[in-house]
Design brief:
This protein is 7% helix and 43% strand. Strands 1, 2, 3, 4 and 5 form a 5-stranded antiparallel sheet that branches. A 5-stranded antiparallel sheet has the order 10-11-12-13-14, with no helix packed on it. The chain has a 4-stranded antiparallel sheet with strand order 6-7-8-9, with no helix packed on it.
Length: 382
């Protein structure tokens, strides 16, 4: 029998237990806490971006989706992004660990690879927007975007949607598998049902995945956008021919997008707006949106009992653009985050984010590293 003195025992424990790791901070419990968490994220993983969709997977992990994303080595003394070490990437997928955010992709890098046709001139890329899980895999709804110098297009045009398929790792990290076609793959964005882009968001409801898409309105129509809904059996999400499309004018589901009305007033759309976020909350379907997107001020929720509606509209809050710390900004894409539990005075409310951006991205945003980040609100739903 070998006896060990106290000093040797302590050394043995330290040696085999490994280095001390600081505790992971707890997840924020208030809207301001989430705003601060993203404001403090300033590194080569993420330091600014839009979309800000969150999704809680069956593995219990929460993932955050970011489309065009800035990664940066830090901030210059004047608050701007430094010229060296600052890069714009097409997208990023973050994994939340308590109050921290890390790259969710197993091998690092962007979440959804750029199309092989990408060049420096066309800037061909994917904007992941919504997410769902089916058949043990995570799928992201990906809007394909290309550069467009035409006036009034914000510098890009839509070129159809695909699904990005990921495999879950035991540690929650994701491995990209492949891109999957949807009924709107390679369909150019435009006006009316023939140009639907199935990229807004998705929910699981019964035996189906319900997918929300949008299209532009005709010139002179003040709505700006119209939203539609489709559904596909969970075990057939990779089959474009298995999708069915809700025809509101007849309250039925049809087999082809061509069966949806192409009339100027979009009679088969479910809402005269662009759906931003859809979630099941307390047994109800809740849709968040901001009419006229960046040009509007009011943020609304549509509440219904079925994915296709009908819906009752409630106003949540005002979110106009303006000037902040000397830089212009606008707000857009309100996103629901019901998986986050708020406490204190906000207990029982629902977390919602709104994205900020600058009218002149390369001047307004790059000059203020705090601008291109989401702001969070606690909202009351019926």
């Amino acid at each position: 029998m070998v006896l060990m003195n106290a000093g040797l025992a302590a050394l043995f424990i330290i040696t085999f237990a490994g280095p001390h790791r600081p505790p992971v901070p707890a997840a924020p419990a208030s809207a301001d806490g989430f705003t601060r968490m993203f404001a403090a994220k300033q590194d080569q993983t993420w330091s600014g971006g839009d979309q800000t969709t969150s999704f809680k997977a069956p593995n219990g992990r929460v993932y955050w989706i970011s489309a065009d994303t800035i990664v940066s080595a830090g901030v210059d003394p004047d608050g701007s992004y430094p010229d060296s070490g600052t890069t714009m990437i097409s997208n990023r997928l973050l994994l939340q660990n308590g109050g921290t955010l890390e790259n969710a992709v197993a091998n690092g890098g962007i979440a959804v690879p750029d199309p092989p046709t990408r060049t420096e001139e066309n800037q061909d890329r994917y904007w992941p927007q919504g997410a769902f899980v089916a058949n043990g895999h995570l799928y992201l709804l990906c809007q394909r975007v290309t550069k467009d110098p035409t006036p009034d297009t914000f510098g890009f045009k839509f070129s159809g949607t695909r699904l990005a398929k990921f495999r879950f790792g035991a540690n929650g990290k994701l491995t990209f598998v492949k891109m999957v076609a949807t009924p709107s793959t390679d369909i150019a964005g435009g006006t009316g049902a023939p140009h639907l882009q199935w990229a807004a968001d998705a929910i699981e409801y019964g035996r189906h995945i319900y997918v929300y898409g949008y299209t532009h309105s005709e010139p002179g129509d003040p709505s700006g956008h119209y939203s539609y809904v489709a559904r596909v059996p969970k075990d057939r999400v990779e089959e474009p021919g298995a999708w069915r499309f809700y025809r509101k004018s007849r309250r039925d589901w049809v087999r082809s997008m061509a069966q949806l009305s192409s009339a100027r007033n979009n009679p088969d759309s479910i809402l005269a707006t662009q759906v931003a976020s859809v979630r099941m909350i307390d047994g109800k379907i809740v849709i968040a949106h901001k009419p006229w997107q960046a040009f509007g001020s009011s943020v609304y929720a549509e509440v219904g009992l079925r994915p296709e509606g009908p819906f009752t509209r409630i106003k949540l809050f005002e979110s106009p653009g303006g000037t902040w710390q000397g830089r212009r900004y606008f707000t857009y894409a309100p996103m629901l985050h019901p998986e986050q539990r708020l406490a204190g005075p906000e207990a029982g409310k629902t977390l919602l984010s709104i994205n900020w951006n600058g009218p002149d991205f390369w001047t307004d945003v790059l000059s203020n590293a705090k601008l291109y980040k989401p702001r969070f609100h606690a909202v009351t739903l019926p």
